Amino acid sequence: MRHCRWHVLPPASNQLSVNIPGLSPLIVQLLYNRGLTEPSQLELFLAADKRLSGDPWLLPDMHQAVARIYRALLSGENIAIYGDFDVDGITGTALLAQGLSALGGKITPYIPHRLTEGYGLKTAALENLYRQGISLVITVDCGITALAEVKRARRVGLDVIITDHHTPLEVVPLAVAVINPKLPHSNYPFSELAGVGVALKLLEALFQGIGQEQQLEGLIDLVALGTVADMVPLLGENRYLVKRGLKLINASPRLGVKEMITQSGLNIGSVGTESISWTLAPRLNAAGRLAHAMTSYKLLMTTSPQEAHQLSTWLEQKNAERQRLTTKVLARAREQILAKGILPLLIAGDRDYLAGIAGLVASRLSEEFYRPAIVIHVGERFSSGSCRSIPEFNIIYALKQCSRLFSHFGGHARAAGFTLPTKNLPRLEQILLQLATTQLARVDLRPQLDIDAEVTLSELSGDTFRAIGQLAPFGYGNPVPTFLSHRVEVVNCYPMGSNGEHLRMKLRQGGTVWDGVGFRLGNYLAELSSPLDIVCNLEIDRWGGEERLRLNILDFAPGS
Protein backbone atom coordinates (compact mmCIF):
# COMPACT_ATOMS: atom_id res chain seq x y z
CA MET A 1 0.00 0.00 0.00
CA ARG A 2 1.39 3.36 -0.96
CA HIS A 3 1.26 5.88 1.86
CA CYS A 4 0.97 8.75 -0.64
CA ARG A 5 -0.54 9.15 -4.09
CA TRP A 6 2.26 8.74 -6.64
CA HIS A 7 2.00 10.96 -9.68
CA VAL A 8 4.68 10.44 -12.32
CA LEU A 9 4.92 13.65 -14.33
CA PRO A 10 4.54 13.32 -18.13
CA PRO A 11 7.64 13.01 -20.32
CA ALA A 12 9.16 16.09 -21.92
CA SER A 13 8.12 16.93 -25.45
CA ASN A 14 10.34 15.80 -28.30
CA GLN A 15 11.06 19.46 -29.05
CA LEU A 16 12.93 19.73 -25.75
CA SER A 17 14.43 16.25 -25.76
CA VAL A 18 16.69 16.71 -28.76
CA ASN A 19 19.64 18.95 -29.51
CA ILE A 20 19.97 20.66 -26.11
CA PRO A 21 23.76 21.01 -25.83
CA GLY A 22 25.28 20.26 -22.44
CA LEU A 23 22.07 19.02 -20.83
CA SER A 24 21.30 15.36 -20.21
CA PRO A 25 17.81 14.02 -20.98
CA LEU A 26 17.20 13.76 -17.22
CA ILE A 27 17.96 17.46 -16.62
CA VAL A 28 15.77 18.42 -19.58
CA GLN A 29 12.95 16.38 -18.04
CA LEU A 30 13.38 18.14 -14.69
CA LEU A 31 13.22 21.54 -16.38
CA TYR A 32 10.12 20.51 -18.33
CA ASN A 33 8.46 19.43 -15.08
CA ARG A 34 9.00 22.97 -13.77
CA GLY A 35 6.94 24.48 -16.55
CA LEU A 36 9.72 25.21 -19.04
CA THR A 37 8.28 24.18 -22.39
CA GLU A 38 10.45 26.17 -24.80
CA PRO A 39 14.18 25.57 -25.44
CA SER A 40 14.85 29.29 -24.95
CA GLN A 41 13.47 29.16 -21.39
CA LEU A 42 15.89 26.48 -20.18
CA GLU A 43 19.04 28.58 -20.33
CA LEU A 44 17.38 31.51 -18.56
CA PHE A 45 16.13 29.27 -15.74
CA LEU A 46 19.56 27.74 -15.19
CA ALA A 47 21.35 31.10 -15.35
CA ALA A 48 18.87 32.74 -12.94
CA ASP A 49 20.44 36.10 -13.71
CA LYS A 50 19.37 39.75 -13.95
CA ARG A 51 17.23 39.04 -16.99
CA LEU A 52 14.64 37.63 -14.58
CA SER A 53 14.41 40.95 -12.73
CA GLY A 54 11.32 43.00 -13.56
CA ASP A 55 11.17 46.74 -14.10
CA PRO A 56 9.94 48.20 -10.77
CA TRP A 57 8.06 50.96 -12.60
CA LEU A 58 5.64 48.34 -13.98
CA LEU A 59 4.21 47.77 -10.50
CA PRO A 60 0.95 49.59 -9.74
CA ASP A 61 1.23 53.08 -8.21
CA MET A 62 5.04 53.05 -8.21
CA HIS A 63 5.27 56.59 -9.59
CA GLN A 64 2.94 57.93 -6.87
CA ALA A 65 4.88 56.10 -4.14
CA VAL A 66 8.28 57.34 -5.31
CA ALA A 67 7.08 60.92 -5.65
CA ARG A 68 5.61 60.91 -2.13
CA ILE A 69 8.74 59.37 -0.57
CA TYR A 70 11.06 61.81 -2.35
CA ARG A 71 8.93 64.66 -0.98
CA ALA A 72 9.20 63.21 2.53
CA LEU A 73 12.96 62.82 2.22
CA LEU A 74 13.50 66.33 0.89
CA SER A 75 11.36 67.98 3.57
CA GLY A 76 12.74 65.91 6.45
CA GLU A 77 9.46 64.21 7.34
CA ASN A 78 9.36 61.38 9.86
CA ILE A 79 8.64 58.09 8.08
CA ALA A 80 7.43 54.89 9.75
CA ILE A 81 7.97 51.43 8.26
CA TYR A 82 5.09 49.24 9.43
CA GLY A 83 5.91 45.55 8.92
CA ASP A 84 4.47 42.16 9.75
CA PHE A 85 5.90 40.03 12.58
CA ASP A 86 6.99 37.05 10.46
CA VAL A 87 10.38 36.71 8.73
CA ASP A 88 9.06 38.23 5.51
CA GLY A 89 7.78 41.29 7.33
CA ILE A 90 10.83 41.61 9.61
CA THR A 91 13.32 41.41 6.74
CA GLY A 92 11.20 43.78 4.63
CA THR A 93 11.08 46.29 7.48
CA ALA A 94 14.85 46.07 7.91
CA LEU A 95 15.33 46.40 4.15
CA LEU A 96 13.28 49.60 3.85
CA ALA A 97 14.67 51.07 7.06
CA GLN A 98 18.25 50.48 5.96
CA GLY A 99 17.62 51.61 2.38
CA LEU A 100 15.70 54.78 3.23
CA SER A 101 18.18 55.68 5.98
CA ALA A 102 20.93 55.54 3.36
CA LEU A 103 18.95 58.18 1.46
CA GLY A 104 18.89 60.40 4.55
CA GLY A 105 15.45 59.37 5.72
CA LYS A 106 14.30 59.79 9.35
CA ILE A 107 12.97 56.27 9.90
CA THR A 108 10.94 54.69 12.69
CA PRO A 109 10.37 50.92 12.41
CA TYR A 110 7.09 49.52 13.72
CA ILE A 111 6.15 45.85 14.02
CA PRO A 112 2.94 45.04 15.93
CA HIS A 113 2.97 42.62 18.84
CA ARG A 114 1.47 39.34 17.62
CA LEU A 115 -0.20 38.49 20.94
CA THR A 116 -1.54 41.90 22.00
CA GLU A 117 -2.18 43.59 18.62
CA GLY A 118 -2.44 40.88 16.00
CA TYR A 119 -1.72 40.90 12.29
CA GLY A 120 -1.95 43.90 10.01
CA LEU A 121 -2.49 47.62 10.26
CA LYS A 122 -4.15 48.74 13.48
CA THR A 123 -5.85 52.10 13.93
CA ALA A 124 -4.52 52.55 17.47
CA ALA A 125 -0.96 51.98 16.28
CA LEU A 126 -1.35 54.36 13.33
CA GLU A 127 -2.80 57.09 15.53
CA ASN A 128 0.04 56.61 18.02
CA LEU A 129 2.60 56.98 15.22
CA TYR A 130 0.88 60.19 14.11
CA ARG A 131 1.11 61.57 17.65
CA GLN A 132 4.85 60.82 17.56
CA GLY A 133 5.22 63.13 14.57
CA ILE A 134 5.05 60.54 11.78
CA SER A 135 3.48 61.90 8.60
CA LEU A 136 4.11 58.96 6.23
CA VAL A 137 3.68 55.24 6.88
CA ILE A 138 5.02 52.63 4.45
CA THR A 139 3.73 49.11 5.04
CA VAL A 140 5.61 45.88 4.35
CA ASP A 141 3.87 42.53 3.87
CA CYS A 142 0.54 43.88 5.13
CA GLY A 143 -2.14 46.47 4.49
CA ILE A 144 -3.84 45.27 1.32
CA THR A 145 -7.12 44.54 3.16
CA ALA A 146 -6.92 47.42 5.70
CA LEU A 147 -9.76 49.49 4.22
CA ALA A 148 -11.05 51.06 7.44
CA GLU A 149 -7.60 51.56 8.97
CA VAL A 150 -6.24 53.48 5.96
CA LYS A 151 -9.43 55.54 5.77
CA ARG A 152 -9.03 56.53 9.42
CA ALA A 153 -5.33 57.35 8.90
CA ARG A 154 -6.24 59.75 6.09
CA ARG A 155 -8.74 61.50 8.35
CA VAL A 156 -6.10 62.25 10.97
CA GLY A 157 -3.64 63.47 8.31
CA LEU A 158 -1.43 60.40 7.98
CA ASP A 159 -0.37 59.34 4.49
CA VAL A 160 -0.02 55.59 3.86
CA ILE A 161 1.87 53.74 1.12
CA ILE A 162 1.04 50.04 1.00
CA THR A 163 3.53 47.44 -0.22
CA ASP A 164 2.10 43.94 0.03
CA HIS A 165 1.95 40.65 -1.83
CA HIS A 166 -1.17 39.09 -0.30
CA THR A 167 -4.32 38.48 -2.31
CA PRO A 168 -6.32 41.73 -2.54
CA LEU A 169 -10.04 42.05 -1.97
CA GLU A 170 -12.31 43.44 -4.68
CA VAL A 171 -11.82 46.90 -3.12
CA VAL A 172 -8.37 48.17 -2.14
CA PRO A 173 -7.57 50.79 0.51
CA LEU A 174 -7.56 54.46 -0.56
CA ALA A 175 -3.88 54.92 0.19
CA VAL A 176 -1.41 57.31 -1.47
CA ALA A 177 -0.14 54.25 -3.36
CA VAL A 178 -0.88 50.52 -3.30
CA ILE A 179 2.03 48.46 -4.65
CA ASN A 180 1.10 44.80 -5.07
CA PRO A 181 1.91 42.58 -8.09
CA LYS A 182 -1.32 40.63 -7.49
CA LEU A 183 -3.58 43.61 -8.21
CA PRO A 184 -5.76 42.94 -11.29
CA HIS A 185 -4.39 45.95 -13.18
CA SER A 186 -0.72 45.16 -12.46
CA ASN A 187 1.60 45.05 -15.50
CA TYR A 188 4.43 43.50 -13.53
CA PRO A 189 5.62 40.28 -15.24
CA PHE A 190 5.96 38.22 -12.03
CA SER A 191 3.18 38.10 -9.44
CA GLU A 192 4.80 35.83 -6.81
CA LEU A 193 7.25 38.18 -5.07
CA ALA A 194 7.39 37.92 -1.29
CA GLY A 195 6.59 41.00 0.77
CA VAL A 196 10.32 41.75 1.10
CA GLY A 197 10.62 41.38 -2.68
CA VAL A 198 7.95 44.03 -3.25
CA ALA A 199 9.75 46.30 -0.77
CA LEU A 200 12.98 45.78 -2.72
CA LYS A 201 11.28 46.90 -5.96
CA LEU A 202 10.23 50.12 -4.23
CA LEU A 203 13.84 50.76 -3.20
CA GLU A 204 15.01 49.90 -6.72
CA ALA A 205 12.76 52.59 -8.17
CA LEU A 206 13.93 55.12 -5.57
CA PHE A 207 17.63 54.39 -6.11
CA GLN A 208 17.29 54.26 -9.91
CA GLY A 209 16.03 57.82 -9.77
CA ILE A 210 19.40 58.99 -8.38
CA GLY A 211 21.58 56.52 -10.27
CA GLN A 212 22.61 54.63 -7.11
CA GLU A 213 20.98 51.24 -7.68
CA GLN A 214 24.24 49.40 -6.93
CA GLN A 215 23.90 50.40 -3.25
CA LEU A 216 21.12 47.82 -2.92
CA GLU A 217 23.54 44.92 -3.33
CA GLY A 218 24.26 44.86 0.41
CA LEU A 219 20.55 44.36 1.20
CA ILE A 220 19.89 41.35 -0.99
CA ASP A 221 20.59 38.92 1.86
CA LEU A 222 17.43 40.16 3.57
CA VAL A 223 15.44 39.41 0.43
CA ALA A 224 16.70 35.82 0.34
CA LEU A 225 15.83 35.24 4.00
CA GLY A 226 12.29 36.61 3.68
CA THR A 227 11.54 35.02 0.31
CA VAL A 228 12.56 31.50 1.34
CA ALA A 229 10.90 31.78 4.76
CA ASP A 230 7.57 32.90 3.28
CA MET A 231 7.38 29.88 0.96
CA VAL A 232 6.64 31.80 -2.21
CA PRO A 233 7.54 29.89 -5.41
CA LEU A 234 11.28 29.85 -6.10
CA LEU A 235 10.66 30.47 -9.77
CA GLY A 236 11.11 33.49 -12.01
CA GLU A 237 12.52 36.57 -10.30
CA ASN A 238 12.54 34.86 -6.90
CA ARG A 239 15.23 32.47 -8.18
CA TYR A 240 17.43 35.40 -9.11
CA LEU A 241 16.89 37.21 -5.80
CA VAL A 242 17.48 34.14 -3.63
CA LYS A 243 20.54 33.07 -5.61
CA ARG A 244 22.10 36.53 -5.14
CA GLY A 245 21.11 36.67 -1.48
CA LEU A 246 22.58 33.25 -0.66
CA LYS A 247 25.82 34.28 -2.32
CA LEU A 248 26.06 37.31 -0.01
CA ILE A 249 25.09 35.33 3.11
CA ASN A 250 27.81 32.78 2.40
CA ALA A 251 30.48 35.31 1.44
CA SER A 252 29.92 38.16 3.87
CA PRO A 253 26.95 37.71 6.24
CA ARG A 254 25.77 40.67 8.30
CA LEU A 255 26.69 40.43 12.00
CA GLY A 256 23.34 39.16 13.24
CA VAL A 257 23.04 36.49 10.56
CA LYS A 258 26.64 35.42 11.10
CA GLU A 259 25.99 34.97 14.82
CA MET A 260 22.86 32.92 14.14
CA ILE A 261 24.75 30.71 11.70
CA THR A 262 27.48 30.10 14.27
CA GLN A 263 25.21 29.45 17.26
CA SER A 264 22.89 27.12 15.32
CA GLY A 265 25.75 24.94 14.10
CA LEU A 266 25.59 25.86 10.42
CA ASN A 267 28.69 26.61 8.40
CA ILE A 268 29.29 29.88 6.57
CA GLY A 269 29.85 28.97 2.95
CA SER A 270 27.29 26.16 2.86
CA VAL A 271 24.08 27.99 3.83
CA GLY A 272 21.29 27.07 1.40
CA THR A 273 17.53 27.35 1.21
CA GLU A 274 17.07 24.43 3.62
CA SER A 275 19.31 26.18 6.14
CA ILE A 276 16.99 29.18 6.00
CA SER A 277 13.77 27.13 6.12
CA TRP A 278 14.73 24.79 8.97
CA THR A 279 17.28 26.75 11.00
CA LEU A 280 17.47 30.53 10.48
CA ALA A 281 13.82 31.35 9.80
CA PRO A 282 12.46 29.49 12.88
CA ARG A 283 14.87 31.46 15.07
CA LEU A 284 13.89 34.80 13.55
CA ASN A 285 10.23 33.84 13.89
CA ALA A 286 10.61 32.74 17.52
CA ALA A 287 10.74 36.33 18.78
CA GLY A 288 7.37 37.27 17.31
CA ARG A 289 5.76 33.98 18.30
CA LEU A 290 6.58 34.21 22.01
CA ALA A 291 7.56 37.84 22.67
CA HIS A 292 8.13 40.72 20.21
CA ALA A 293 9.49 40.53 16.67
CA MET A 294 11.46 43.74 17.16
CA THR A 295 14.22 41.63 18.74
CA SER A 296 14.77 39.88 15.41
CA TYR A 297 14.65 43.22 13.60
CA LYS A 298 17.37 44.55 15.92
CA LEU A 299 19.49 41.45 15.30
CA LEU A 300 19.35 42.06 11.54
CA MET A 301 20.20 45.74 11.93
CA THR A 302 22.90 45.70 14.62
CA THR A 303 26.48 46.74 13.93
CA SER A 304 27.69 45.64 17.39
CA PRO A 305 29.27 42.16 17.71
CA GLN A 306 28.38 42.07 21.39
CA GLU A 307 24.72 42.94 20.75
CA ALA A 308 24.56 40.41 17.90
CA HIS A 309 25.80 37.68 20.26
CA GLN A 310 23.35 38.63 23.01
CA LEU A 311 20.33 38.84 20.70
CA SER A 312 21.17 35.61 18.90
CA THR A 313 21.60 33.78 22.23
CA TRP A 314 18.19 35.04 23.32
CA LEU A 315 16.65 33.81 20.07
CA GLU A 316 18.22 30.38 20.55
CA GLN A 317 16.51 30.15 23.92
CA LYS A 318 13.16 31.35 22.57
CA ASN A 319 13.34 28.90 19.69
CA ALA A 320 13.92 26.00 22.10
CA GLU A 321 10.95 27.21 24.16
CA ARG A 322 8.86 27.45 20.99
CA GLN A 323 9.72 23.84 20.11
CA ARG A 324 8.62 22.60 23.55
CA LEU A 325 5.34 24.52 23.41
CA THR A 326 4.61 23.34 19.88
CA THR A 327 5.04 19.70 20.92
CA LYS A 328 2.71 20.19 23.90
CA VAL A 329 -0.05 22.00 21.98
CA LEU A 330 0.20 19.59 19.05
CA ALA A 331 -0.46 16.63 21.35
CA ARG A 332 -3.55 18.34 22.81
CA ALA A 333 -4.85 19.44 19.39
CA ARG A 334 -4.46 15.89 18.03
CA GLU A 335 -6.57 14.62 20.92
CA GLN A 336 -9.31 17.12 20.04
CA ILE A 337 -9.19 16.13 16.37
CA LEU A 338 -9.37 12.40 17.07
CA ALA A 339 -12.16 12.84 19.63
CA LYS A 340 -14.36 14.44 16.96
CA GLY A 341 -13.43 11.87 14.34
CA ILE A 342 -11.20 12.80 11.43
CA LEU A 343 -13.44 15.21 9.49
CA PRO A 344 -12.71 16.76 6.05
CA LEU A 345 -11.61 19.94 7.84
CA LEU A 346 -9.78 19.84 11.18
CA ILE A 347 -10.47 22.45 13.86
CA ALA A 348 -8.88 22.57 17.30
CA GLY A 349 -9.29 25.43 19.75
CA ASP A 350 -8.44 26.26 23.35
CA ARG A 351 -7.80 29.24 25.60
CA ASP A 352 -4.27 27.95 26.25
CA TYR A 353 -3.27 27.73 22.57
CA LEU A 354 -0.80 30.55 22.01
CA ALA A 355 -1.53 32.53 18.85
CA GLY A 356 2.20 32.54 18.13
CA ILE A 357 2.42 28.79 17.59
CA ALA A 358 -1.09 28.10 16.26
CA GLY A 359 0.15 28.22 12.66
CA LEU A 360 2.92 25.72 13.36
CA VAL A 361 0.47 23.30 14.95
CA ALA A 362 -2.04 23.74 12.11
CA SER A 363 0.73 23.00 9.63
CA ARG A 364 1.70 19.79 11.45
CA LEU A 365 -1.94 18.64 11.63
CA SER A 366 -2.53 19.38 7.96
CA GLU A 367 0.61 17.46 7.04
CA GLU A 368 -0.21 14.45 9.24
CA PHE A 369 -3.88 14.03 8.30
CA TYR A 370 -3.73 15.64 4.83
CA ARG A 371 -6.67 17.93 5.41
CA PRO A 372 -7.10 21.68 5.89
CA ALA A 373 -6.48 22.48 9.56
CA ILE A 374 -7.36 25.45 11.75
CA VAL A 375 -5.95 26.03 15.24
CA ILE A 376 -7.66 28.72 17.31
CA HIS A 377 -6.63 30.69 20.36
CA VAL A 378 -10.03 31.12 22.03
CA GLY A 379 -10.45 34.38 23.90
CA GLU A 380 -13.25 35.61 26.10
CA ARG A 381 -14.51 38.18 23.57
CA PHE A 382 -12.30 37.69 20.50
CA SER A 383 -10.53 34.66 19.09
CA SER A 384 -7.77 34.31 16.50
CA GLY A 385 -7.11 31.39 14.19
CA SER A 386 -4.31 30.16 11.95
CA CYS A 387 -5.17 28.06 8.90
CA ARG A 388 -3.06 25.70 6.81
CA SER A 389 -4.45 23.83 3.85
CA ILE A 390 -3.83 21.34 1.06
CA PRO A 391 -3.72 22.05 -2.70
CA GLU A 392 -7.25 20.72 -3.17
CA PHE A 393 -8.82 23.28 -0.80
CA ASN A 394 -8.25 27.03 -1.18
CA ILE A 395 -8.48 28.26 2.39
CA ILE A 396 -8.51 32.01 1.65
CA TYR A 397 -11.41 31.49 -0.78
CA ALA A 398 -13.23 29.54 1.93
CA LEU A 399 -12.68 32.33 4.45
CA LYS A 400 -14.07 34.84 1.98
CA GLN A 401 -17.33 32.88 1.98
CA CYS A 402 -17.81 33.79 5.65
CA SER A 403 -16.09 37.19 5.68
CA ARG A 404 -19.00 38.80 7.56
CA LEU A 405 -18.08 36.75 10.64
CA PHE A 406 -14.55 38.20 10.90
CA SER A 407 -13.07 41.32 12.40
CA HIS A 408 -10.09 40.70 10.14
CA PHE A 409 -8.77 37.98 7.85
CA GLY A 410 -6.19 37.51 5.11
CA GLY A 411 -3.61 35.20 3.59
CA HIS A 412 -3.03 32.82 0.70
CA ALA A 413 -4.59 29.68 -0.77
CA ARG A 414 -2.52 27.43 1.54
CA ALA A 415 -2.06 29.63 4.64
CA ALA A 416 -4.29 32.24 6.22
CA GLY A 417 -5.36 33.78 9.50
CA PHE A 418 -8.32 35.53 11.05
CA THR A 419 -9.71 37.32 14.09
CA LEU A 420 -13.39 37.19 15.01
CA PRO A 421 -15.80 37.60 17.94
CA THR A 422 -15.71 34.35 19.92
CA LYS A 423 -19.50 34.06 19.67
CA ASN A 424 -19.09 33.55 15.88
CA LEU A 425 -16.90 30.44 16.21
CA PRO A 426 -19.71 27.83 16.00
CA ARG A 427 -21.12 29.39 12.83
CA LEU A 428 -17.63 29.64 11.29
CA GLU A 429 -16.93 25.97 11.97
CA GLN A 430 -20.30 25.00 10.49
CA ILE A 431 -19.76 26.94 7.24
CA LEU A 432 -16.13 25.86 6.72
CA LEU A 433 -16.86 22.20 7.46
CA GLN A 434 -19.75 22.25 5.01
CA LEU A 435 -17.53 23.79 2.31
CA ALA A 436 -14.75 21.26 2.92
CA THR A 437 -17.15 18.31 2.98
CA THR A 438 -18.57 19.34 -0.39
CA GLN A 439 -15.27 20.19 -2.10
CA LEU A 440 -13.28 17.22 -0.80
CA ALA A 441 -16.01 14.59 -1.17
CA ARG A 442 -14.29 12.83 -4.09
CA VAL A 443 -10.68 13.60 -3.17
CA ASP A 444 -8.29 10.85 -2.10
CA LEU A 445 -7.08 12.53 1.09
CA ARG A 446 -3.51 11.33 0.98
CA PRO A 447 -0.53 13.55 0.11
CA GLN A 448 0.45 13.53 -3.54
CA LEU A 449 4.07 12.91 -4.45
CA ASP A 450 4.94 14.40 -7.82
CA ILE A 451 7.64 12.20 -9.32
CA ASP A 452 10.01 13.78 -11.81
CA ALA A 453 11.23 10.60 -13.49
CA GLU A 454 11.50 6.81 -13.22
CA VAL A 455 15.18 5.84 -12.92
CA THR A 456 17.43 2.98 -11.91
CA LEU A 457 19.67 3.47 -8.89
CA SER A 458 22.72 3.38 -11.17
CA GLU A 459 21.37 6.45 -13.03
CA LEU A 460 21.56 8.42 -9.76
CA SER A 461 25.26 7.72 -9.40
CA GLY A 462 28.22 9.54 -10.92
CA ASP A 463 27.67 13.17 -11.88
CA THR A 464 23.89 13.21 -11.41
CA PHE A 465 23.85 15.06 -8.06
CA ARG A 466 26.10 17.84 -9.40
CA ALA A 467 23.98 18.14 -12.55
CA ILE A 468 20.78 18.39 -10.51
CA GLY A 469 22.41 21.18 -8.51
CA GLN A 470 22.12 23.41 -11.58
CA LEU A 471 18.42 23.77 -10.79
CA ALA A 472 19.07 25.22 -7.31
CA PRO A 473 17.99 27.15 -5.31
CA PHE A 474 15.28 24.64 -4.38
CA GLY A 475 12.14 25.39 -2.44
CA TYR A 476 8.42 25.84 -2.85
CA GLY A 477 7.52 25.78 -6.55
CA ASN A 478 10.93 24.33 -7.43
CA PRO A 479 11.21 21.27 -5.19
CA VAL A 480 14.22 19.00 -4.91
CA PRO A 481 13.80 16.49 -7.80
CA THR A 482 12.06 13.25 -6.85
CA PHE A 483 12.61 9.85 -8.48
CA LEU A 484 10.91 6.45 -8.64
CA SER A 485 12.92 3.23 -8.73
CA HIS A 486 11.22 -0.16 -9.17
CA ARG A 487 12.10 -3.47 -7.51
CA VAL A 488 14.89 -2.33 -5.22
CA GLU A 489 16.33 -5.01 -2.93
CA VAL A 490 16.42 -4.20 0.80
CA VAL A 491 19.82 -5.41 2.04
CA ASN A 492 19.03 -4.29 5.61
CA CYS A 493 16.79 -1.86 7.47
CA TYR A 494 16.57 -0.79 11.10
CA PRO A 495 14.89 1.97 13.15
CA MET A 496 16.71 5.23 13.76
CA GLY A 497 16.10 8.04 16.24
CA SER A 498 15.33 8.08 19.95
CA ASN A 499 11.85 6.62 19.48
CA GLY A 500 12.43 4.76 16.23
CA GLU A 501 10.45 7.23 14.13
CA HIS A 502 12.95 7.07 11.23
CA LEU A 503 14.34 4.20 9.14
CA ARG A 504 17.91 3.62 8.00
CA MET A 505 18.31 1.34 4.97
CA LYS A 506 20.85 -0.21 2.67
CA LEU A 507 19.41 -0.75 -0.81
CA ARG A 508 20.66 -2.57 -3.88
CA GLN A 509 19.62 -2.74 -7.50
CA GLY A 510 21.80 -4.78 -9.83
CA GLY A 511 25.37 -3.92 -8.91
CA THR A 512 24.53 -0.54 -7.38
CA VAL A 513 24.26 -0.15 -3.60
CA TRP A 514 22.97 2.97 -1.82
CA ASP A 515 22.50 4.04 1.79
CA GLY A 516 19.08 5.49 2.45
CA VAL A 517 17.10 7.11 5.23
CA GLY A 518 13.32 7.35 5.59
CA PHE A 519 12.39 10.22 7.88
CA ARG A 520 9.11 9.70 9.78
CA LEU A 521 8.63 6.28 8.13
CA GLY A 522 9.41 4.28 11.28
CA ASN A 523 5.73 3.42 11.82
CA TYR A 524 5.76 1.48 8.54
CA LEU A 525 8.66 -0.84 9.45
CA ALA A 526 6.32 -3.85 9.66
CA GLU A 527 5.17 -3.24 6.08
CA LEU A 528 8.70 -3.45 4.71
CA SER A 529 9.38 -6.24 2.24
CA SER A 530 11.86 -6.90 -0.53
CA PRO A 531 11.89 -5.90 -3.30
CA LEU A 532 10.42 -2.42 -2.95
CA ASP A 533 9.37 0.37 -5.23
CA ILE A 534 10.81 3.53 -3.69
CA VAL A 535 10.26 7.24 -4.20
CA CYS A 536 13.33 9.23 -3.20
CA ASN A 537 15.56 12.19 -3.78
CA LEU A 538 19.29 12.71 -3.37
CA GLU A 539 20.81 14.47 -0.37
CA ILE A 540 24.15 14.89 1.36
CA ASP A 541 24.51 13.25 4.77
CA ARG A 542 26.80 15.42 6.89
CA TRP A 543 27.89 13.43 9.93
CA GLY A 544 31.10 13.29 11.93
CA GLY A 545 32.78 15.87 9.74
CA GLU A 546 32.23 13.76 6.61
CA GLU A 547 29.88 14.21 3.66
CA ARG A 548 28.28 11.25 1.89
CA LEU A 549 25.56 11.11 -0.74
CA ARG A 550 22.49 9.09 0.21
CA LEU A 551 18.89 8.46 -0.80
CA ASN A 552 16.16 10.29 1.12
CA ILE A 553 13.27 7.80 0.98
CA LEU A 554 9.95 9.65 0.78
CA ASP A 555 7.67 6.62 0.39
CA PHE A 556 7.76 2.95 -0.53
CA ALA A 557 5.45 0.14 -1.62
CA PRO A 558 5.83 -3.57 -2.46
CA GLY A 559 7.88 -4.00 -5.67
CA SER A 560 5.95 -4.13 -8.91
Largest sheet: 5 strands, parallel
Count of helix runs = 18
Oligomer: single chain
* Share of β-strand residues: 15-25%
Count structural domains: 3
| CATH architecture annotation name of the largest domain | Alpha-Beta Complex
Report the average pLDDT across residues.
93
Helix content: 40-55%
Count the E strands: 18
Please tell me about this protein's structure:
- The chain is an alpha/beta fold.
- The protein folds into 3 domains: 56-252, Alpha-Beta Complex (inorganic pyrophosphatase (n-terminal core)), CATH 3.90.1640.30; 342-439, Diaminopimelate Epimerase, Chain A, domain 1 (Roll), CATH 3.10.310.30; 448-558, OB fold (Dihydrolipoamide Acetyltransferase, E2P).
- Helices cover 40% and strands 21% of the residues.
- It has 18 helices and 18 strands.
- It has helices spanning 14-17, 25-33, 39-47, 62-75, 87-102, 123-131, 147-156, 195-208, 220-229, 236-251, 255-264, 273-290, 294-301, 305-340, 355-369, 395-400, 425-439, 464-468, and strands spanning 5-8, 78-83, 106-110, 134-140, 159-163, 177-179, 346-350, 373-377, 382-388, 408-411, 415-421, 448-451, 453-454, 483-496, 502-509, 512-518, 532-543, 546-558.
- The strands form 4 sheets. A 5-stranded parallel β-sheet has the order 3-2-4-5-6, sandwiched between helices. A 5-stranded mixed β-sheet has the order 7-8-9-11-10. A 5-stranded mixed β-barrel has the order 14-15-16-18-17.
- Helix 5 (87-102) packs parallel to helix 8.
- It is globular.
- The mean pLDDT is 93.
